[in-house]
Amino acid sequence: MTQGFDPTTFDTQIRPQDDLFRHVNGPWLRDTPIKPDRATAGGFVDLVDEAEILVRSIVESCAAEPEDDEQRKIGDLFASFMDTERIEQLGAAPLADDLAAIDAIDSIPSLVRTIGALERSGVNSIIGLYIAPDRGQPDRYVTHVVQAGIGLPDESYYRDEQFAEIRDAYRDHVAAMLQLAGFDDASDRADRVLELETAIASHHWDRVAVRDAQKTYNLKTFAELGALTPAFDWQAWAQAAGIDLSVLAEAVVSQPSYLEGLQGLLDEGSLPAWRDWLRWQLVHGAAPFLSDDFVETNFAFYGKTLQGTDELRPRWKRGIGFVEGSMGEAVGKIYVRTEYPAEAKSRMEELIANLLEAYRISIRELPWMSDETKQRALAKLDAFTPKIGHPESFKDYAALETDPADLVGNARRAQSVAMDRELAKIGQPIDRDEWYMTPQTVNAYYNPTMNEIVFPAAILQPPFFDAGIDDAVNYGAIGSVIGHEIGHGFDDQGSQYDGTGALSNWWTDEDRAAFDGLAARIIAQYDDLSPENADGQTVNGALTIGENIGDLGGLGIAYLAFKLAQEGKPADPIDGLTPDQRFFLAWARAWQGKVRPAETIRRLTVDPHSPPEFRCNQVVRNIDAFYEAFGVTPDDALWLDPAERVTIWA
């Protein structure tokens, strides 16, 4: 049996009672540089890099000796991305026809039609569109319409003083890209783009409001959709985009006031700004597939300025990303043949079963929840669907035409095929086998409208999971991840969906108020936290509350599940560490990570996850078992008075 981690790598100068995160990860934090082409480092990133190398071997094998037509297409995509000589020769030429179409815009109706015509080219629009189960009727698909139209990460970047320098850099970046595309007066054009995007952003909902499952559920008929923004002819847009009007017969409008706000911006006097905005969106969207001057200029802002990354990722890595974005499940089908052993699935099924049982025990014993709501919570838990490793069937890419000498064309055709696949869902039964991540993705997720937890094959390896290590380490790492994803079904937003996936209030008013009170206490805890390299900026407790509830419940439930798995087994120490200590040390090891300062600021603004150190330390401060495992006292830095500790689900 392997050890799972090496205690000799811990920082003996830092006590776990004072800083569990740095006790486990201190030497690594000091000695491990962030790779120059990365904004972060850590266990997740290491696994991503390892998966990337494996995928490279798959893709290069497909390019050299394809076994079938699907593999030939994989090879074509990669070959087109790696054909740098041809890409350099073309420069911005692949954009000529679309730029000419933008030049011809002479009215708001023609602007709308042109935006529609570019919908299949990967060009950022003023509206976003996707197909998903209807939160009100989760047994059917419905179109969702969301706010869009900005090039900075978030609406706050256009208004907050702390982002003034980034706004200036963004304006200069837009000018540089337009100049590369051959436009004169690029500086004036960039001014118009920034002014227009600032106006667009003024109608955006902020990140906290966008999380609200109730506020963002606004089912509209086609007529009601059009009434929100009369100047935007939805029928003309859809016809230009090749979208059947049945797709828009009903739509969930996530931010209705955003569409209303667009009405004031769609006027003839703004056409010069709209043309420049659309030119910028076209060039920006195509930049990764154009010559090096576009690629490097794009990286200079989005990589260096926004994330603090030193170097552009090597071309082969970007090529792998392009292939995965275009035919990810075709690659995944090959990946799981060798990278997903059968014992991993059986061990995961055992872990998940114990985690679900732990949730059942916890829910039955909750002191703040009534029996009525407990029964509904248990019914939702019983309806959970776990998905492990990979889908039962993989996406079909027969409709995709590829050409090893046409990178931009390949990108657009892949976008169009993916779009058609999504649009075809309207009117069809829900595909309950569909996955929203590929098997080679190092991540996991909970989908509330399917009430499912999903664990791709790539995350089922150390430091998160190892079939050969003791329960303490597996439950502290992957067990807490499983618990976290289940917990999303009971966080501030997931708890508003019932077991069928419908947005439904299954709570009594008193129980909901009790839950909201506990969540408010967690928000207050995190609002006071500021990570290193953040220049005093703190965590947004309201933005991160869902993930923080997931972390807190995930670890607490994982500990209870670990105890269930340990029943009747000896609790012998390993390397002088008790099973309980190893459980919490594995948790800390799983969150090993560091982030560049610029990326830290960006994430604090837009990321619903807390920084790694708080995902580790702030969670254990609320869990009594941690205090017992390490003998934490009021004199220790991680001590939190019992009255201040928050327990929601475990």
UniProtKB/TrEMBL annotation:
The UniProt record lists the Peptidase M13 C-terminal domain at 443-646
The reply to whether DNA-binding figures as a keyword in the UniProt entry is no
Q: Which Pfam families match?
A: Peptidase_M13, Peptidase_M13_N
Range of residues in the leader sequence:
none
Which cofactor(s) does the record list? Zn(2+)
Entry-linked InterPro entries: MetalloPept_cat_dom_sf, Peptidase_M13, Peptidase_M13_C, Peptidase_M13_dom_2, Peptidase_M13_N
Which Enzyme Commission number(s) are listed? 3.4.24.-
Going by the UniProt record, its keywords in alphabetical order are: Hydrolase, Metal-binding, Metalloprotease, Protease, Zinc
Q: Name one GO cellular component term.
A: plasma membrane
Q: Domain Peptidase M13 N-terminal: where?
A: 16-391
Q: Which GO terms describe its molecular function?
A: metal ion binding; metalloendopeptidase activity
ATP-binding is among the record's keywords: no
Q: Name one GO biological process term.
A: protein processing
Q: Which PANTHER family match?
A: FI17812P1-RELATED (PTHR11733:SF167), ZINC METALLOPROTEASE FAMILY M13 NEPRILYSIN-RELATED (PTHR11733)
Q: Which family does it belong to?
A: Belongs to the peptidase M13 family.
Which protein is depicted?
A: Endopeptidase
Q: Which organism is it from?
A: Aeromicrobium tamlense
